[in-house]
Amino acid sequence: MDYIDPHIHMVSRTTDDYATLARMGCVAMSEPAFWAGFDRGSADGFRDYFRQLTEVEPKRAAQFGIQHFTWLCINAKEAENVSLSRDVIAMIPEFIHCKNVLGIGEIGLNKNTKNEATVFLEHLDLAVKFEQQILIHTPHLEDKYQGTRMILDMLCDDSRIDRTRVLVDHVEEHTVDEVLGRGFWAGMTLYPVTKCTPARAVDMIERFGGEKLLANSAGDWGPSKPTAVPDLIFEMRRRGHPESLIRKVVYENPIEFFSQSPNFSFTPRDNGFNPAS
Amino acid sequence: MHTASQILENEFLEVRAKLLEVAATLDRVDRSAAESAPLDAGAQSSRDRIDAAIQILLDEGSGRAERLQRFFSREYEKDWRREMEI
Predict the structure, then answer these.
(1) DSSP symbol at A19
(2) pLDDT 10s digits, B41-75
(3) Which of B73, B80, B84 to substitute to test the interface with A, most A CBs within 10 Å?
(4) Which fold does the domain A3-264 belong to in CATH?
């Protein structure tokens, strides 16, 4: 089955991973800007990173027939440095019109601090100013519930935000209901230990249905599995879910959400998309 | 969709294995505490939380996963904006 991974960090993955993903049915992916595993020292470090996201990765992906899209920001962890964050936010407009940029992300909170919230709000301003979609990172483990509520407070307090153009990622059992209930899209991240397993993600699909729910691998430099979305597909089949529901979650929903961005120029495989063209 | 009986039959061995992992981990902790030093205050707090989490699993009713998540979460403070002056 063709599928789209809406959240994966391919700068951290090998070319062999692209090949494996293509063989497993991945036809497109979106890569949010994130923490590289170390704090970068200057805005120029981010400039190089944004070039990697907008120039290099689309070419690597295209070799395997995968269409690559991206999101730009300074992530929540490095947002603790407000001065650096403001330099990066000021630079983002240089890249925002690159043809694979879908919006601002993954912005959010990490440890739920005042600095993180300040930078989050400034990212929201940027997104509104440039009419961009937003992809949200929610915190991990014991910080997730509090941080998700804080993020939803900030989003809902801003009347300029169109909730149907916002994807709140890394939802789990205790946050998914409120995210969907307030009118946002929700992403389930299939990531060992700190997030959600394929089985628990399917439980959430069974509880809430397939509307406005996405599933992603968030494959990155940590212990993660870039082929986690096919694992979810397999788990749904194992439980007897119809192919139509599986396809909705892993293919149609990402297309519906991303299509709100003018840069989402996705060509379905059966419409003549050719690798490396 | 599978019936409840089918689900339990399908998952039984996996759940059994996960329970054994928890049991073996707690045994390892107890064995080490007996042979070396007892748990310090921080570790004892974690141990108590595991016991409380196991009690949640034994509760009747659905929503155990959500309740466990909430149990392991920091509280949400409604007035966070005022406290942070945001």
Answers:
(1) H
(2) 999 999 999 999 999 999 988 899 999 999 999 99
(3) B73
(4) TIM Barrel (3.20.20)
